Here is the input.
Amino acid sequence: MIRVQREDFDLGAELRALSDGDHGIGGVASFVGLVRDMAAGENIGAMTLEHYPGMTEKMLGRIEAEALERWPLNASLIIHRYGRLEPGDQIVLVATASPHREAALESCHFLIDWLKTKAPFWKLEDTPDGGQWVDARDSDDEAAARWRKQADGS
Amino acid sequence: MIRVQREDFDLGAELRALSDGDHGIGGVASFVGLVRDMAAGENIGAMTLEHYPGMTEKMLGRIEAEALERWPLNASLIIHRYGRLEPGDQIVLVATASPHREAALESCHFLIDWLKTKAPFWKLEDTPDGGQWVDARDSDDEAAARWRKQADGS
Amino acid sequence: MKLLYFAWLKTKTGVSEETVSPPAEVETVADLLTWLKQRGPAFEDALADVEALRVAVNQEYAEMTDPVTAGDEVALFPPVTGG
Amino acid sequence: MKLLYFAWLKTKTGVSEETVSPPAEVETVADLLTWLKQRGPAFEDALADVEALRVAVNQEYAEMTDPVTAGDEVALFPPVTGG
Here is the structure.
């Protein structure tokens, strides 16, 4: 399931709902991204997440479909927020449920890595010098590329 | 933090507490193990988790210390239950919080893989033929060995 | 053709959304960018470094050589930084 | 010496905890297992396959060649299956 929303989410309730009633699930893996008050050495107060409505949902849906194809998952969930966020706020939740531990852990890792390079979101950080658009990191491309290599079997 | 307990735990509250007030945390990764009603093709009703009090805490503490040494973590948590558990019940929670996504995800994966081969717990499954001690799986040893190789740099 | 600008593409051009009618010789993403750059210094500056740009045509990532046509929705933005 | 048995080691031997005084020639984990096997068919059966056994001395995983002494807590159990 995909959700793109301005509102916060209840992590415990979301994770519970993911496995609720399905006793074939052996493990639930999750990752929650939070707003840090220190990015690349600069103190930031808050940030605003801009996104591309329509394409965002399309890309997240495709990323999720890819995970469901690669791993035996009983359920998956991606929630990504947009709008203004304060330090400590939840930005994103990725969660996967599977009969098997490895499938849950790997697919969760895959989802957040791919989302970081494919989902059209942009962070505008409040800094002492004003709003700064965050630069994409090469390390994110490398993290996503790792999964591409695995898919090629190389 | 390490907890070995008979009681259930509140997943949402535990994860919230892990990052609460620390705005240097950029990501929280977690894995929750659940009782499946189908293990190795056999329907099971419930299970009883036996453990070795004292050694369990010692091993979990050592596994956690190892993770804290290998990755830049702001917080970590391992909760493992023992006693009688029903299908759908939570067995174990592993969670890690870090400034960096990869560190949180990898250390969480590491903790559950190592715990599976080092922490002295044994599962007794209720089956139609009576109580059956679960056999250890080679795949668990392989999963743990992967992290050993990485540590050796080989 | 509908154009969308995000993040610093929006800030630099001062445009978030517009409808344009490029001439017939604009057949690819690359042609479109070349045409857009001629619209003034703000566009020339914003689109100067093609490597720093990502383009989506009808909400799909597109290459410089991909075609664009009159009914398309074309979005220009920097590499994504969500998650 | 305090002995602890877990999982099917406990089921097969019928013992969960006991205090024993092995003879002086029992110096290693292997010696201890050999001595325990002589205590009757239940022990002989439970300890038959050394590969299927794990041993902890004072709550640390131990090898067959590791020493055991009178004051030790020695635990016998199968490979762990928690998590």
User: Anything to note?
Assistant: The radius of gyration of chain C is 12 Å.
